[in-house]
Write a structure and sequence with these properties.
299 residues; 12 strands
Length: 299
Amino acid sequence: MNQALEALLDLLDLEQIEEDIFRGVSRSALVPRVFGGQVAAQALVAAGRTVRGDLPQALGSARVGETPNAHSLHAYFLRPGDPGAPIVYTVDRIRDGRSFTTRRVVAVQHGQPIFHLSASFQTYEDGLEHQAEMPDAPDPETLPTAAETLPRHLPAHVAERLVEARAAVDLRYADVPPWGTVGQPREPRSQVWFRADGKLADDSLLHVCLATYVSDMTLLDSVLLAHGRGGWAVGDVVGASLDHAMWFHRPFRADEWLLYDQESPTASGGRGLGQARIWTQDGRLAVTVIQEGVVRVPR
């Protein structure tokens, strides 16, 4: 496991300061606010730890199948997070049912809520099975790494910071990222392959939280592609996540290749919508993601 992945796992390993109250810290970001994927993943960790009952509380300690698994989350980003201050996560135990368990989490900084998440967990059960067909995508092993791709299209100092910010994850674009085709509108669809850059414990919550963290990295890229914009990395738009929803359909490992197939059906009113599916390399539909974000052109 590389040092960046170890640091990310430490970031997600929240400190419990009271029953149903947890504290997390932040890592440096490209913009002067907390990365949305970090807050969402940490909030899901907090929710998940209150579902585990008498099992060990450390992230990565419960094996797949031992606990109810997260099957959906719905979240709102309320205020920009301060990366220099701790984040306190308070968990409300909305419901503990026989099949489904529901939690509500509020992330607070400086006395104000910055993020709100509702998450639902389900014990495993058999049922009807069908899924859409996985789209075509190049073999991830044939694609360049982010460290190879980003310097081709961005100023050296920006590329270096992006590579550093994503060092815990091996993320590979199937096509040229939006900042590589500025001024050239194209189909609002993008694909990336990703996996944690190291072996993870057999803990379903850990893998779901890692996917949640990554899901906020590239989803709004598809909005930018439709307008030939390079995005936050080059400064021709100003953006921020507004809300985020995920449905976890089937078990997966975040340390094995996952295809993030993303598209944008619409943008209007200073907002853009991204929707996506995450597939395992062997073709199983694992996750559906929908996100809306602020996408404004600077005046």
